[in-house]
Design a protein that fits this description.
The complex is a heterodimer of chains A (540) and B (441). With 540 residues, chain A is α/β, with parallel strands linked by helices. Chain A has a six-stranded mixed β-sheet with strand order 4-7-8-1-9-10, with helices on both faces. Chain A has a six-stranded mixed β-sheet with strand order 16-19-20-13-21-22, sandwiched between helices. The longest helix of chain A is centred in the C-terminal third of the chain and has 20 residues, at 490-509. The radius of gyration of chain A is 25 Å and the shape is globular. Chain B has a domain at 144-375. Chain B contains 19 helices and no strands. The longest helix of chain B has 30 residues, at 128-157. Chain B is globular. Classes of the chains: A alpha/beta (540), B mainly alpha (441). Chains A and B meet through helix 10, helix 11, strand 18 and helix 15 of A and helix 1, helix 2, helix 12 and helix 13 of B.
Chain lengths: 540, 441
């Protein structure tokens, strides 16, 4: 690493990027080899050593206390105390430092805002400020763009450029090729814990991808044009609350036809999760209807919905998808364990379960040491294949896949995508939810963009990325005209007015940046974008 | 379609993840081993080698055994300290150490010898009956513990912490006793009804916290503890009511259970072992089947390991919670019913269930919440109690020492890292990372 360099670390999931960086940050101890800083070997016993050596890290999952303010979070671990042994926290000084750092690097954050009220992009900025207040020279960003909108990503890249200008070095971990090409000065590709090559940003995407997985992969999904049939899933006027009793889905209308893939794009937290959970009977619907093949299914139990021919790949694999302690075989029958031939009456048939597991492990190319190995020992991609195998091995009318390839390596992504398309081609209606725009564009025959609990536009897959990106940020091409026309009750009008304000603020700002961060003071009435519609409801 | 995968450099990271697991020094050695062993079945190590490996790896059976040894060592120290005569010899330890060592050895070895003689076999037994007596005593103490242990273990596997086995056993003993002396039924049928009444009593007392948990999210630990109190005071109140209290007595004791509702004795009238132990074996088998070979057990284990995934897969978590608690209650109630239907007592007293519910928690932990493990653990606890009686009367060591021993064993088992550190066993760190008991909270 040179000073003032942005070094991208590229590799598949599980290639060892994060592990390497955790070693660098002192979280793990190296078994062999050494780390050189300014030519001197460095021994790190913990993150505090790393910070002392000028290394800071922004983790993939933010290490922030949600109920603390920005200042409190930043001072955490390096608390300034005054009053000697009484040890009062010197909040004022910390606050001043935060303000100073964010001023110097042009990273605007409100020092008194509470973290949980902030959008993800700002939270990440807080993490960066936190690292910078510790006077680091080398900043490690672990998959920083995974949770951001295209616009937020663009902003982050701007921030990185300004940090680079200030002489800081940045290690940028990612598996997204586009960003790497956009920002990196040097690219190191890691595969299976080994450096397999260094490349310059001029290398083509395909070259980099090939380096990453060790063979050429198709980045686009090959598929024939869809032949949509009858509507299978009909969602009309659906209203759903999230766990905090805040409106998450606010009048969604959707139709998915047999033999087509409907993709739902959108920044996470705009109601996609709640929408899917409501369809699956995992979350009560407050209004509206869900119709499956002509039959009302809202209010049904999850089991009944599954039995009616719905396959479901949940968004959070490790929480909702698999039981980690269970074997691969048991996970493969997690929702059909009581159906013949796996169970008859009260008794379970382990032989049948093991036999079918063996078949499906081969069919779906699950890499496991045995069908009896606990699923927790498998890699993320293989766990996901187990779930996909489970859901796709019974006859389906509707297949719902939420974030089907999140945290999955490129090879498995390709496989899972081809399976989804194959399911479409045999006439199943497919609903794909993903926060990866590329995935939605690649898979879907129609794309519905969800924003603050509503579908704000349905477009074809050939729509330019930028246009979809704008929709994801809540900006419709004809924002001022279109929205007010469809307004119904008073609350809706309010919301539309707010949305219009959003659009105005942004068009004033010039770039395609999302709403409030550029002008937090001026658009006070508007809630932070990825928060969802919640905060709006409070004021309404 | 099969994944086109011509090159060995496949994109999947399974081997990489194992390498990482090792590199990261996350201490996940056991898992990695479990995952890798099945891949190389062609080369079978010798039995002795396997045994050694198992011994030095984080083997739970070894830890259990060593915990037992450690507990006995601490118990020995306690015996020495609490005996003034032996302790006196330590006053001149530097002058004549042999005195102190001899006195300590005599005390401890005799005490533990009596423990053994009381629990397993007395070499000085005159005839067949007296030779069988220690075993009979052990089995008598074991039977109810198997049930309460299974009750706690079953709930554990379903992700619930059933502290209420005591209360469930209490309600079980109440209903079993009432059925035992209030219903005039023919022998056989009477016993069956009384046993079922015990099961029903426990089931009700398990259903309440189960349904509260499922419907309102109230934590089962709090509710089962509270229900324990309610059950024990209900019992105390009930005993002195007309029709329940023994008309010939003024103290708090109920009428005795009819002979027609008593569990048959196994080894003749002079030995206390009764049919309860057979029921216990049956129950262990049933619970093992339920957990591993039934759809209900699949649901139960799935809910216990990951309720979110279970719910997503269409399993009704609330229904499962209620069922788990009802089953746990049934088991504890059956255990309780043996306290009056067996040979321990024939009538209700305020302390009729003793500590079997709370001991059940220890038994479940000691048995690693596996059915047959629980049965063995109950056998150990039963043996300790049977032997403790003899130790008290022959060596003058108070019975409470047995309770201390039991507690120590469980403490050592709950802290496998400590045991392994003491005995310098490999992978102590691994065990610390995967202590089995955190579940349920």
């Amino acid at each position: 690493m040179e000073p003032g360099e942005i070094h991208a670390l590229l590799g598949e999931n599980g290639a060892g990027k994060s592990t390497l960086m955790n070693v660098l940050y002192g979280l793990y101890q190296p078994d062999e080899g050494e780390i050189l800083v300014d030519g001197k070997p460095l021994k790190l016993r913990g993150p505090s050593d790393a910070i002392a050596a000028g290394i800071g890290m922004v983790h993939q999952h933010f290490m922030l206390v949600p109920v603390f303010t920005v200042t409190e979070n930043i001072m955490l671990g390096a608390e300034q105390v005054r009053g000697g042994i009484a040890g009062f926290l010197d909040r004022r000084r910390a606050r001043r430092e935060v303000a100073e750092v964010s001023e110097r690097y042009n990273l605007r954050v409100d020092p008194d805002a509470v973290i949980e009220d902030l959008p993800v992009g700002i939270q990440q900025r807080v993490e960066i400020v936190k690292a910078l207040t510790r006077d680091v020279d080398l900043l490690i960003l672990d998959e920083p763009t995974a949770v951001l909108t295209p616009q937020e990503t663009e902003e982050l890249l701007t921030v990185m450029r300004s940090l680079k200008a200030a002489g800081k070095s940045i290690v940028f971990i990612t598996h997204k090729l586009g960003e790497v090409k956009a920002i990196a000065d040097r690219i190191t590709v890691i595969r299976r814990g080994k450096t397999v090559g260094t490349a310059s940003p001029e290398a083509s995407r395909d070259e980099l991808a090939a380096l990453m997985v060790g063979r050429t992969v198709r980045l686009t999904v090959e598929k024939a044009p869809a032949t949509p049939g009858e509507p299978v899933l009909d969602v009309a006027g659906l209203v759903v609350d999230d766990d905090r009793q805040v409106r998450a889905v606010d009048g969604v209308d959707l139709t998915v036809r047999a033999g087509e893939v409907l993709g739902i794009a959108g920044v996470q937290g705009n109601g996609q999760t709640e929408l899917i959970e409501a369809i699956m009977g995992l979350r009560p619907t407050l209004a509206g209807t869900v119709t499956l093949d002509g039959q009302r299914v809202d209010g049904w139990s999850t089991k009944k919905v599954l039995r009616a021919g719905v396959g479901y790949v949940p968004e959070d694999r490790s929480v909702d998808g698999v039981v980690k302690e269970f074997s691969v075989a048991e996970n493969l029958v997690l929702d059909i364990y009581d159906q013949p031939p796996f169970g008859r009456g009260l008794s379970l048939k382990p032989d049948a379960i093991a036999k079918s597991a063996q078949e499906r492990i081969e069919q779906f190319d699950v890499r496991t040491s045995s069908a009896q190995a606990p699923v927790g020992t498998l890699s993320g991609g293989n766990q996901q294949k187990v779930i996909v195998a489970r859901e796709l091995s019974r006859p389906l009318k509707l297949f719902i896949a939420a974030q089907p390839t999140r945290g999955v390596d490129v090879g498995s992504i390709e496989f899972i995508h081809s399976r989804v398309i194959r399911e479409r081609d045999i006439g199943t209606a497919v609903l794909v939810v993903s926060s990866e725009l590329d995935e939605v564009i690649g898979l879907a025959d129609r794309i519905a963009v969800m924003y603050r609990g509503r579908i704000i536009g349905v477009v074809g897959p050939d729509t330019p990325r930028e246009e979809i990106g704008l929709l994801m940020a809540g900006i419709t091409p004809d924002a001022t005209a279109g929205n007010s026309a469809e307004g119904g009750d008073a609350a809706t009008t309010d919301r539309d007015a707010a949305a219009t304000a959003d659009a105005d603020a942004v068009s004033g700002g010039g770039t395609a940046a999302t709403t409030d961060r550029d002008a937090p003071a001026t658009t006070d009435g508007v809630a932070p974008a990825p928060e969802g519609p919640g905060s709006e409801d409070k004021e309404a | 379609m099969t994944n086109p995968n011509p090159q060995p450099g496949s994109p999947d990271k399974e081997p990489a993840s194992e390498e990482q697991a090792a590199q990261n020094a996350l201490g996940n050695t056991e898992r990695a081993e479990a995952a890798t062993t099945p891949t190389a079945p062609q080369e079978r190590p010798t039995l002795g080698r396997l045994f050694l490996e198992n011994l030095w790896a984080a083997n739970t059976f070894t830890v259990t055994l060593l915990s037992l040894v450690l507990a006995m060592v601490v118990g020995a120290i306690l015996m020495i300290i609490s005996d003034p005569d032996v302790l006196a010899t330590y006053a001149y330890f530097t002058a004549r150490p042999a005195d102190a060592i001899n006195a300590s050895w005599t005390l401890v070895s005799e005490a533990y010898a009596n423990l053994f003689k009381g629990a397993v076999f007395d070499p000085a037994a005159a005839n067949f009956n007296t030779a069988l007596s220690p075993i009979s005593e052990t089995l008598t103490y074991t039977a109810p513990l198997v049930f309460t242990g299974l009750s706690v273990a079953l709930a554990f596997r379903g992700g619930l912490f059933n502290i209420g086995a005591q209360g469930q056993a209490t309600m079980g003993v109440v209903l079993a006793a009432l059925a035992g002396f209030l219903l005039p039924l023919p022998p056989g049928l009477h016993l069956l009804v009384a046993v079922l009444a015990g099961a029903v009593g426990g089931a009700i007392w398990g259903f309440i916290p189960g349904v509260l948990k499922a419907r309102t999210g109230a934590h089962e630990v709090i509710n089962t503890i509270m229900l324990n109190y309610i059950a024990v005071y209900f019992l105390t109140w009930l005993i002195v009511q007309n029709g329940v209290q023994d008309p010939n007595r003024t103290d708090a004791i109920s009428r005795p259970v009819d002979a027609s509702a008593q569990l048959p004795r196994l080894f003749g009238d002079n030995l206390r072992a009764h049919g309860g132990i057979l029921l216990a074996v049956l129950a262990t088998w049933a619970v093992a089947w339920l957990l591993n070979r039934s759809t209900l057990g699949f649901e139960l284990r799935a809910v216990g390991a990951n309720p979110d995934a279970a719910r997503t897969a269409g399993i009704s978590v609330t229904r499962t919670y209620v069922l788990i608690m009802v089953f746990a209650g049934v088991l504890a109630g059956l255990g309780g019913s043996q306290m009056v239907l067996g040979t321990t007592a024939a009538a209700l007293t305020p302390l009729v269930v003793a500590q079997i519910g709370f001991d059940g928690i220890l038994v479940a932990l000691l048995g690693r919440v596996k059915p047959w493990g629980v049965a063995l653990a109950a056998l150990l606890f039963g043996a300790l109690q049977a032997g403790g009686n003899r130790m008290q009367s022959y060596s003058g060591i108070s019975l409470e020492l047995v309770t201390v021993l039991q507690a120590l064993i469980v403490i050592f088992i709950a802290a496998p890292a400590l045991v392994k550190a003491i005995f310098q066993l490999r992978a102590a760190r691994a065990a610390r990372l995967q202590t089995s008991l955190a579940k349920g909270w």
